[in-house]
Every structure is written in structure tokens, then in C-alpha cells.
Amino acid sequence: MEDGNVVFRQVQVTPEHGLHLSPISQLVRKALTFSSTISLKFDGRKADVKSAFDLMLLAAPSGAILELEACGSDATTAADAICELFEAGFVISASEIH
Amino acid sequence: MKVYTGIAVSPGVVSGPVLVLGSENFRIPRKFVSRDAIDDELHRFHVALEDVCRDIKSNEQLVSSQLGAQYGAIFSAHLQMAEDPRLIREVEALIREQTRSPEFAVSRVLRSYAEQLEKMGDRYLSERTLDIYDLEKRLLRQLLGESREELRNLTEPVILLAHDLTPSETATLDTKFVLGFATEVGGHTSHTAILAGALEIPAVVGLGRCLSSVSGGEAVILDGDHGRVIVDPDNETTRRVHDMQVRSLKIRERLGLMENLPAETLDGQRVTICGNIEFPEEVRHCIKRGAEGVGLYRTEFLFLSGNREPSESDHYEAYCRVVEACGELPVVIRTLDIGADKVPQLLDSQFSEIQNPMLGLRSIRLSLLNTPMFKRQLRAILRASVHGNVRVMFPLISTLLEFRQAKMILMDVMEDLEEEGIPFQRNIPIGMMVEVPSAVMLAEEFAREVDFFSIGTNDLIQYTLACDRSDPMVANLYRSGDPSILRLIQMVLRAAANHGKSVTVCGQMSSDPRFIPLLLGMGLRSLSATPQAIPRLKEVVRNLSMSDAVRIAQHACSLDLARDVEHYLQGELSRLCPDLVDNIGF
């Protein structure tokens, strides 16, 4: 995990109401499937993507640009997966709700 | 002396010391823990957290399977919050570094999140503070579990005062020591209220805020007949209450002799009086008081008590116990009637999302949307039907289509059973509750399709007068004696008579002796009431002649105001059975 593999990306908050509960819930669920530490930075604040409270308190509004940082052995796949969620606009397909 | 007025939900007058159960805002008993206890306290926090997570998971599964994955997702978000690494880290830090108690730490950390979210002024996120408070409550409930434990370790008789009691808490009250209970919230038809009746302990609900001014241990009189709680009564009041208790005991003794006498008017008109039950155990209360069957078997308890959805055999076993205990006597089984004020804890947060629960997804509407669940219940009812005299009844029918759909599903289930070679009563009578004004308007049409009607006055009054009885600001509109209600009942009786169908009145109105002469005079011949009320109803019937009843009904129906109707009926009752009218006030 601590092999120093760090990946940086930029993502934009697309949901109309900003990063509210449903996107947060999807982000946490996705992040927990990776061993890497994943964080999002906004407005000088940094949130652990595995923490719903961190993400809520990040209070990222619609349109905000966030700095994504993933650090760990699966950092690249983790960053890709998180970016994908942002790009898809957090639209949930029925199958994804499980 | 302080008097609080609420809604009387279970009769009887008791006095004793008060035991106050923590309100919604849990009182955190201590803020600090000793340094040597830190590891134990951390352990306690983690155990509580695990329990909460387990609860949330089982709620999620249940809700997903019953209502669909999108509802279950609410709980998966809750679970993420409970398992949140930041929350755990910060709570642990407060316990370890500042020797705070887990209760204090949990509350402090979660409330700081809620406050920050509220400050952001983002509507979507500030709504989440409710979820955060919910999590706080769950955790505190686990951590402070012992405070409600005191309910199980009672050693002397008490009167319980609480913000609210859950149905399961009510069901498990130790009636040896709990003389009666009163709650700040709740309405007449709330589940807790119904359970109090079933347990036969005096109860008052909907007192409004009062917990903060009672510290516990004070002498209290709980008057379940008039819906009053008197804290620190003066001598005069104590004496009057004592007299009243003596008198009501005498009346009860006399009424006890009623059980073997038929419900028959002075001029020989027979009236059928059945009992309303919630639990199989209550059949005994009915039979003991001479009920001629179960006129309303509410089946919600199976759903409200457990942590999982009842299986077909859970249903079947409960129904068989009731049906067998009744022998030849009829048992009317009402299909699931949850929603509105009766929501299983399992589905609680689910239903709290509904804006207007009384007008929302509840009762038969929920069953029709959930065919697998509905069919499970119907299969069990049909299977139990071979053991006695079973009738099935659908609640809250508001359109003909709903009734037809429900009946069609019942037919489907019959076909399935037939294919599987499982015996059932093919011509089982199928009836409906009349609780919605639209059903009364179409009573003629319904009368062609149903085997029987049962008028549920509680909901009928609420929907007709558009008022929620548990809301003290409008509760005065809720009157059984409202002329509109009398007229609706007449319409149903007329339609049923035109098609040779039977009508029963269940609900609070049929348990109120004042209304018996009126209902009989209007043509009703069948009542179903709470078991405790049956002897009183019999006494009224046995002191009444049909010519009196008709005269009383005619006059009552000519009055314009609910107040006048009720006052008139009260006067008539005091002539017929002076004992049953009590004028004692405080």
C-alpha cells in the first residue's frame, strides 16, 4: 500500500445539487473497494473519499473543480474508477444499486 | 398539583409513583471516564457501533426485499456513516485523549458534523442532519441501553411517563409493576395505544410536553378513562379519585356477571357483539367476556414486532391459534394495515420520507404493491380457514378497482393452493373495511361485490372531517357524533340492507356505550369492540328496547352539531344505565 505510487487528477462536480448524499454514498462505496488512500481537495480542504462525513463537510457545489489524489498500490485503477463516477454524473443504473 | 390532558386510550384509574423514561434527547449521565477504564470504554463504543451496524444492515435487507433496492439504499448510506473512519477516529480520540465517556464523545462528534452542515446553508446537505441525529440516537440507545433496562428490573409498582414507547417496548412491559403509562406523543390509533388496550393497563397518550417538569418519583394519578395525568395531586383530588376507583371497581364486578347473558334488548332483539384483537392471546379476553367471535383481528403485530418479515408459517401459526380458540365462532382476519401511524420499526425511516402518510402508501395500497408479501398472508389465512369459521377482510378500500384487485389476488392464491392440493375454505366470506368516504359514496356498488362490510370509524372520521386526531390543534374536529358520520353510517346500512349484506361497526365508536342505542336504532345488529368494553355494551343492549333505540336514533340524526348529538346521547345513556355515565371531573 505504501509503495509511493501517487496519482493526481482533476474532476468536476456535475450533479445539480453538488456533492450530496447519493453521489457521496456512491463515492464511498467505490473507494472502499480499493486499498489506496483516496482524497479530494476543494477550497483548501481535503476529504478522505472513504469517509462520508469528510465528503459532506467538503461541501463541494455543482461545477466545483476538485483535486483527486490516490496513493497506494492500486492508485491508478482507483483514480480511474472515481473519475468515471464524476464523468458519468453519478447516474445510478438499477443494477448498480445491487 | 399539575394536570396534563391527553388522549385516553386504555381505561382505568391508577395511582402510584412516577417513573420517567428518557426523552428523545437522551440525557447523558456522565461526561468523563476514569483513565483506567479507557480501554473498556473504547470496547463499549465498538460493541455499540457493531450493534448499530447490524441493525442497519438488517433494515436494509428487509426494506430492499419488501419495497425495492432504491429504498434500501437509504440504509446503505446510513451504514456508511456509521462505519465512517473519520467518525470512529474522532470518537476514539475524545475517549482516549480527553477521557470522555463514549456517550458524550459520540454526541459531541456527530453534533459537530450536524452543526457544520447546518451552517453551510445548503438545503440538500442540511437535510442530512436528520440522518446524523438518527445515527446519534441509535448509538446512544445502544450505549445507554441500561436506562431502558430499568423497565425490566422493576421491583415496585410505578406509573410510566415517557416521550414515546415503541410498540415492542409496550408489548414487553411488566404489567406486574407497570400500573399504567402515559406518553407525550401518540394518537388514539397509534400502535402503542392499541397495545395498551390489549395489555389492559390504563394509558394516556399525546400529553404534549411535560417530561421536563416531572423529575420522577412524584405521586401521580393516571386516569385512563378521561385521558388525564395528575402530578402531585392535592388531598381533595386524591380522595375523589379513590371514590371513583371504588365505584368503578363495583361496576366492573357487576359487569363481570354479564359474560354468560345474551346481548338482547328488552324486546328480544339479538345483537352480535364480537371482540377486536391484536394478538392471539387476546382471544381469551374476548371469550371470557362473552364475545361471539372476533370481529376484527388486526394482523399488523406480526410485522411490527419482529426484525424480519413474517413467513407464511408465522402467519399460519398465529391465525390457527386464534381460529382454534374460537371454535365455531367467526374470526374476521383483516389483512395487513400498516402505514400512517403504524409503521414497523424496520420500515421506520422509509415511511418517514412520506410527506403525508395518512394519504400515502398504507394498508391495502401497500399490499397491492407488494404482491409476494400479500400472497404469503392470504395463503396463511386460507390454510387456516379449514380449522374454523374464518372470514377475510381488506382494509382501507377506496375504489372498486382496489377491491377487485385484492379479490383477484385472493383467487390466484386459491388456485395455487388447489394445484398444490392444500385444503382451504373455497367459499370463505370476503369483506371490506369502510373507512374512506369514497367507499361510502359507492356503498351500493360495493354491496354487490362484497360479502360483508365493517365500518372502521376511526379512519372514517379522520378522512371525512379531514383532521388528524393526534394533532391537538385540530383534534376537537374529530367527533364520533358528527352528523356527517351518522349520515355516512346510515348510507352503508341502507346499501347493505338493499343487497342482504351484513354490517359491523368496529373502531372506537362501537366501544362507546353512548353510541349503542343510536347504532341499533339506525339498524345495526353487529358490533365489534375492544374486549374490555364488551360487558358494558351488553349492559346497554339489555337495558334498551328497540322502540327506544329507534326514537333515540331519529332524534340524534335530526341534530346539527356533533356537540348536541353527543350531549343528547350522553343524556339518554344516563337514563338507561346511570352507572355507566360518570360525571366525576377534577
Task: Describe this protein's structure.
- The complex is a heterodimer of chains A (98) and B (586).
- Chain A is of the alpha+beta class and 98 residues long.
- Chain A contains three helices and four strands, in the order βαββαβα.
- Chain A has a four-stranded antiparallel sheet with strand order 1-4-2-3.
- In chain A, helix 1 runs antiparallel to helix 3.
- Chain A is globular and about 35 Å long.
- The N and C termini of chain A lie far apart (28 Å).
- The C terminus of chain A is likely disordered.
- By secondary structure, chain B is of the alpha/beta class.
- In chain B, 50% of the residues lie in helices and 14% in strands.
- Chain B is built from 26 helices and 16 strands.
- In chain B, strand 12, helix 17 and strand 13 form a beta-alpha-beta unit.
- In chain B, helix 16 crosses helix 17 and helix 19 packs parallel to helix 21.
- The longest helix of chain B has 30 residues.
- Chain B is globular, with a radius of gyration of 26 Å.
- Chains A and B meet through helix 1 and helix 2 of A and helix 2, helix 3 and helix 4 of B.
Q: What fraction of residues of chain A sit in β-strands?
A: 15-25%
| Largest interface in this structure | A-B, 22 and 21 residues
Number of helices of chain B: 26
Side-by-side strand order of the widest sheet of chain A? 1-4-2-3
Indicate the radius of gyration of chain A in whole angstroms. 12 Å
The number of strands of chain B is 16
Total strands of chain A: 4
How much of the residues of chain B is beta strand, in percent? 5-15%
Average pLDDT reading of chain B = 87
**C-alpha geometry of chain A:** globular
The low-confidence parts of chain B are none
Reading the helices and strands of chain A in chain order gives EHEEHEH
Total number of helical segments of chain A?
3
Structural class of chain B: alpha/beta
- Helix residue percentage of chain A: 25-40%
Q: What is the radius of gyration of chain B computed over CA atoms, rounded to a whole number of angstroms?
A: 26 Å
Quaternary class: heterodimer
**Strand ordering within the main sheet of chain B:** 1-8-7-3-4-5-6-2
